[in-house]
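STRUCTURE REQUEST FORM
Protein name: UBN2 domain-containing protein
Source organism: Theobroma cacao
Requested output: structure tokens
Priority: standard
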Amino acid sequence: MIPNPKAEWTEAETKKVQTNFKAINTLHYALTPTKFNKVSSCTTAKQVWDKLRIIHEGTSQVKESKIAFLTHNYEMFKMEPGEDITSMLDRFTNITNKLSQLGKPIPEHEIIKRLLRSLRKIWKPKLTAIREAKDLNVITLDDICGFLLTHELELKEEEEKDKREAKEKKKNIALKVSILEEELDNLSCDVDEELAMVARKFKKLMG
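Status: completed
Returned output:
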């Protein structure tokens, strides 16, 4: 800050103090009560900003630990069983965004390749088609996400179709079984009647 007494400030110094005051107020206004308490003793906007950055990112050692943790999660990232594309993309993007915020951005073409490698085996035909039709060093992440979401919709439609066909097949089998049971019942009745007729004839013959 300015060491001179206020009465001796130059116009430039006065303007500097006013600018600093406005900046501090702006930062304070955006803070939660908890964070405000941590920076309320700061006398310059730079001090407030530096302290907030440390609060948010941690010290250099903590920052490096976060980067190492996120990098590990990025490299080991896999689509979870039963997970849909939207949920997977949210998890994946959360990791890459945090790395970028910590000063470790990943090139988009590398993100795309890592993302495609994380998909389950059921996606293998689609991945092969994408790799054959697209240059992964040129295509955008938004395009890849669009392809995956569209294909997921197609897979769901096929799954619903298979379920409907299986249900219809089961219904047809049940109907055929019912008809067969009815025919067997009728056949049993016919046999019983024939046996009864033979018995009556035999009885007359013996009488």
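Reviewer notes: Residues 148 and 154 are 10 Å apart (CA to CA). The mean pLDDT is 80.
Form closed.
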